[in-house]
Amino acid sequence: MTTIIQWCEYLGGVTDTPPRGFPMHITWLLFGFWWTLLTALIAMFCGQSSKFIYIDF
Amino acid sequence: MNIRNLAATFVIALFGFFTLNLGLDYGLRNTVPHVLQRRLLNRVTADVVAIGNSVIASGFDVAAFDRASGMHSINAGLGAAEFAQQYVAWKLVTNERTDIKQVVFGTFDYSVTNTKPTKWTTWHSNNALPFYADPSWSIRYGCASRADEVVYLLARRVPLFTERGGLWTKVETLRRYLGGVGFPAAQINRFGRISDSKLLLEQNTEVFERLGRSIVETRVPLVDPVADLLKEAQQKGIASFMVLMPLPADRRSFYAMPGWKAYVVYLRELLSQTGTRLIEATEWSDSREDFADFVHLSEIGAAKFSTRLSEAMQCAK
After folding, report:
1. Does residue B177 sit at the A interface (CB-CB below 8 Å)?
2. Chain B hits for A36, Cβ within 8 Å
């Protein structure tokens, strides 16, 4: 559990140093792309809060 | 992370956001409202335009109507469309042309006197149509204040917002596919799951009756986009017809109730203010094969309805 929290904190920008066992050092460039990916994922899945998704094939 | 790296990360993310928007704008260019908009802007000669939501999109058969009437028609129906969207479809057709002579507005039950407000922040999927058209056509229906209008004008330029319904549809399709693994396949038609169509209609006769009486007693007016559409048609000399669309025979008990009958009389009175003729087609279709689900006409039903509609419009003139 502690490892998961440390990984999440690193990915969320709470700490700058990768936790022990984390496979890579994320640079500012990669963080930029990571934020973009998060934006895309949020945009894709936030529709679940909508009551009825209408599908017109 | 130091400030310089944070700023650089922010710039990269901003670039990514911009690219994401470009990708969505391009990737979702063929969604239903985009295709409808292109079709409506295509200047094909037409005498009649049919406006409405999915009941018109599925129920108005252009070929059958044209054959029976000897005129040319356009089906501008858009599935799940709210009234502001139907008004935008009307504007797309009639804004820059003068050949339209008749408009058919299809609806069902108490929809055109529904007082539920609309808000532009809830417009997505098919209801995103106003974002692609002249904002002056829709801004007054979806915005509550001047500040709201400013945000609306900005948001309609961001594909991640305007096209979010297209994204959600893909995710929802995947979710339904995964949720259906191991179960018998749900029956679907062009508007989605057949069982969902039942949600569009009031199923309780007492509530239905009470609603009809309440609308008449409190003299609820037509929703603004419909009232505006009919007024504009009158000003342009376009003959307007409102059609109460056919619904399955098992709903006959609803339309035999005094509340509904009083509502029809009241609706006719409202429509007379703009010279609009009301065509009651609710009980025109008897056969099960005339319907694709609990609300929408099938191809066979649409052909029969459109032929009869043409005759009814001739008689109503």
Report:
1. no
2. 12-13, 16-17, 19-20
Is B80 close to A54, i.e. CB distance below 8 A?
yes
Rounded to whole angstroms, how far apart are CA atoms B127 and B36? 12
Total number of domains in chain B? 2
Asked if residue B92 lies in contact with residue B41, where contact means CB atoms within 8 angstroms, the answer is yes
* B244 plus B101 within the same structural domain: yes
Both B66 and B124 in one domain: the answer is yes
Q: State which H helix or E strand residue B188 sits in.
A: strand B188-189
Length of chain A: 57
Identify all chain A residues contacting B174, using CB atoms and an 8 Å cutoff: none
**What's the mean pLDDT in B9-13?**
93
What ipTM does the predicted assembly reach?
A: 0.80
How confident is the model at residue A50, as a pLDDT? 61
Q: Is B169 on the interface with A (CB under 8 A)?
A: yes
Work out how many domains chain A is built from and give that number: 1
Q: Give residue A34's domain range.
A: 2-49
Same domain (yes/no): B77, B129 = yes
